[in-house]
Amino acid sequence: MEMVIDFPGGARVDAHFGQFTVMTDQPPQAVAPTPFATFLASIGTCAGIYVLGFCQQRGLPTDGIRIVQRMHTDPFSGMVAKIDLEIQVPPTFPERYAPALVRAADLCAVKKHFERPPQFDVYTQITEAVPA
After folding, report:
1. Is residue 38 left, alpha or beta, with left meaning phi > 0 and alpha meaning psi from -120 to 50?
2. What's the pTM?
């Protein structure tokens, strides 16, 4: 997969891939979330995809189900040290599926990449001017 990152103006930085564009921005005049907020949102939404799929495969309604994601920051480094994903279910949700729902969310590919991070190579390449 390849993404093209560009700079459409101000503090905006956008990522383009396939038919999609993910817009990011920085305060104080932000019109989109910051890159880091988008990154963090990918964790909960990825877990949500697995929770949704689990429920759909079993014909379980998803009304009233939501995931609350909480980030805990290390006070010394300022880095996120722990992330909680609390899957909230309504009282009507079958209790016997609760452990399996957690296992489904645990399959999240974003979470797995945290556990086994990729190697990064950052470099420059001189190219011809790209038309606007």
Report:
1. alpha
2. 0.86
